[in-house]
Amino acid sequence: MRTSTAYSRPSLTHRTRIVTLCLVVAVVLSSFLGRYDATVLGFRVRVEQVVPLTLVAWMLLHPVLRAAFLRTLRHPVPLVFAAFVAWNVVSTLIFSPSLTWSASILIWLVIDLLLLVSLMAIAEGAELAGRLGRLSVAPWALVGFAAYAVANLTRGRVALGADFDYLYEVYVARVTALEANIYASILIFWTLLTITRRNIGRWEVAAITVSVPLGLVASQTRTAVFSLALGLGVFTVYTLFSHRSAWRERLRRIVPAGVLVGTLMVTYGIVAALGGTAPADRTLPPTAEPSASSAIAPGATPTSAPTREPDPTNPEQQNKIGDVDFQGGTIAFRVEVAQLAAQEMTGVNLWLGSGTNTFGLRHEQPGTPGISGHIIMLPVQVLYDGGIVGLGLLIALFVAVFVCVPRERKPVAAGLLASYLLSATLTSMFWFAITWILIAVLLRPLTEDERDLTRA
Questions:
Q1: Around Cβ 320, how many Cβ atoms within 10 Å?
Q2: Per residue in 156-200, pLDDT tens?
Q3: Per-residue pLDDT, 148
Q4: How far does Cα 401 stand from its chain's mean position?
């Protein structure tokens, strides 16, 4: 595969270099701001979509950067991703009931492609993005824990950077991300890239192993901790059995990951063991008056006892982390969504898809009448939108990423991709900027320092 077309080191003037790197910084920072958007011409436009387009425009306007950008388009990973985007366009044109509805996600995919190419075009930009991501781990985790603690201790009177989970009646941290799942996913992916780095310092390991479990507890996201544990496990196995270095060196390489797994197990074990996981009793006592939303209409036959609505100012907090139940909660919700999606996955639609982002045009969100449904599981989403062809292109994309990663970074890539695929299977991470920043950082060539550490 031709991978030398990307990550060039062109000779730039001081001004051009500074502007380019400042825009890279802005792109990375915007990936943490998924909460913020505005409506433009009927479309929801996010900060993390606008900032990358600014970087792309700058590169296309500058002759030297434009040449690097266009060369990067020939790299195998952008080529496969471009094929995936093109197939989504074809499937949408054939099967979508509303091209306008589908256009928002198609445009987002095109922005993602341009973002990936812009960060892969200049080696220094990808290296800077990686450094910024690693520096964000502990602050991102600790700010999230602070938001979680304050919101729950004040029972929502101060809930800056937190959302109320109505199912478990607990406040969860999201900070400036779109939701708690995205906050936690950003945290675990940068954690994986940081804790698996060669020659990581003891103080950095200590900061990560203390802060990351707290941040994950703050998100109240079970998927994130499973994904992080899987990624660290895959990294450990790959390191132990694929490297040619001495066993002592291999063991030294995996010690930080082992320490983090240990603190995760202790932290989550303690939290999961605190209290029961039974749902809160929302049945009203016989003497209580039902709320308007739960009152029985005149002439209707009562089918169940009236229930109370969760009160964010007086929640009956439950142990969400300890609740791993396939019969209820968010896991059962995902199963129900997948069953609804399967109704259209037949015949030609199974192979070619039903059009991008069209599930909400055909189904309401389970348990939420009047709200358009959305699939939050990447494989199911892609199979529904683009069929077996689209899913095959998605698999080809991740295979291309792994193949193109430098050999010395393969253990890290294996762990990160395993973690990402599990996380994306249960959340909706694929379209967000963090995905493409991570891929650009993962694919970058080894620096001189990394080569020296590899030889040591």
A1: 21
A2: 999 999 999 887 889 999 999 999 999 999 999 999 999 999 889
A3: 96
A4: 17
Residue 449 banded pLDDT, cuts 50, 70, 90: low
Backbone phi, then psi, for 203, in 5-degree steps? -65, -35
Rounded Cα–Cα distance for residues 385 and 381 (Å): 6
- Of the listed ranges 157-171, 190-204, 249-263, 328-342, the one predicted with least confidence: 328-342
Phi, psi at 43, each rounded to 5°: -110, 145
Q: What tokens appear for 394 in the block?
A: 């998605």
Give helix 123-153 / helix 433-443 axis angle, nearest 10°.
Answer: 140
List all residues 6 or more positions away from 400 whose beta carbon is below 8 Å from its beta carbon. 1, 76, 77, 80
Distance CA 142, CA 135 (A): 13
pLDDT tens digits, one per residue of 52-85: 999 999 999 999 999 999 999 999 999 999 999 9
Q: Taking a C-beta distance cutoff of 8 angstroms, is the pair 125, 446 a contact?
A: no
> How high is the pLDDT of residue 248?
83
Please check whether residue 99 is in contact with residue 137, taking contact to mean a CB–CB distance below 8 angstroms.
no
In terms of DSSP bridges, do strands 37-40 and 170-173 run parallel, antiparallel, or are they unpaired? unpaired
Q: Is the pLDDT of residue 17 over 50?
A: yes
In Å, what is the CA distance from 318 to each residue of 285, 321, 332?
20, 9, 18
Reading the block at residue 446, the tokens are: 């080894």
With both helix axes pointing from N to C terminus, report the angle between 123-153 and 202-219 in degrees, rounded to the nearest 10: 50
Task: Evaluate if pTM is beyond 0.85.
Answer: yes
